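stage 2 :: seqdesign
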């Protein structure tokens, strides 16, 4: 993989009109060892509060039926005043297991910037081993317990949550906007194969993760990767600086934090 990055970088450095860089990686989240977001980053998670057992919409790749009964409903409350409901499927069994899962997914939600978290409506947690997916219009995403465990072990859960949250909170209105399409066109290449294959559905989420690490935590990504990103998607990087409001604090108070009561 390194040789591929260096080759791409060399091709760009070699000539002003060099051919477009090849995508750096197959995808942003699981095909590399990069730490874009860490568990030590600023985190706004304040409290997780159990609400009730409810009937709720639990969209699932494996099933046709939309609703489930006896869903564990939690509310994750964040110190910036945002709140996100976490719905855990009753297949979790015991309350303790449901609470563990809700906690595990709430942490990385706390690392999101306020501007994304305030648009995230809720998160659905299923028991099983499928990859996560998001719903842009519904402003939620769905994760599966065994896949979460794998991603925690590989330090990829923060990145997964960020990627899915881009779909849930920024795809509308940005992914289909004239500004984004213009930046794509001006850049030409893509940051990952996944983005290249899905320029409308995945490019914003794939590019945003690289942009987040590079713009918020300069020096965190290896210097060769930073260089390659700046060379491959300069126009998208500039637009993402605005979309992700990089000149503002990551966490911004937008309401009063309720604490753990009630
Ligand atoms: Zn995606």
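stage 2 :: out
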């Amino acid at each position: 993989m390194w040789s591929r990055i260096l080759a791409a970088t060399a091709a760009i450095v070699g000539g002003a009109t060099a051919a477009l860089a090849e995508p750096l990686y197959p995808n942003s989240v699981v095909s590399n060892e990069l730490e874009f977001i860490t568990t030590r980053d600023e985190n706004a998670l304040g409290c997780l509060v159990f609400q009730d057992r409810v009937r709720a919409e639990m969209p699932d790749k494996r099933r046709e039926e939309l609703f489930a009964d006896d869903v564990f409903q939690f509310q994750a409350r964040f110190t910036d005043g945002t709140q996100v409901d976490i719905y855990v499927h009753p297949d979790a069994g015991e309350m303790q297991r449901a609470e563990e899962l809700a906690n595990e997914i709430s942490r990385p939600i706390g690392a999101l910037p306020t501007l994304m978290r305030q648009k995230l409506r809720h998160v659905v947690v299923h028991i099983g081993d499928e990859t996560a997916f998001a719903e842009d219009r519904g402003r939620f995403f769905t994760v599966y317990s065994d896949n979460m465990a794998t991603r925690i072990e590989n330090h990829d859960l923060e990145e997964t949550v960020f990627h899915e949250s881009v779909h849930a909170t920024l795809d509308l209105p940005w992914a289909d906007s004239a500004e984004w399409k213009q930046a794509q066109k001006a850049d030409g290449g893509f940051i990952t194969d996944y983005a290249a294959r899905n320029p409308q559905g995945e490019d914003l989420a794939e590019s945003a993760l690289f942009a987040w690490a590079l713009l918020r935590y300069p020096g965190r990504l290896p210097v060769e990767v930073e260089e390659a990103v700046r060379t491959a998607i300069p126009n998208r990087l500039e637009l993402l600086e605005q979309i992700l409001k990089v000149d503002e604090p990551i966490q911004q108070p937008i309401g009063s934090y309720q604490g753990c009561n009630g």
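stage 3 :: structure notes
- The chain has a mean pLDDT of 92.
- Strands lie at 45-57, 67-78, 83-88, 122-126, 133-135, 140-144.
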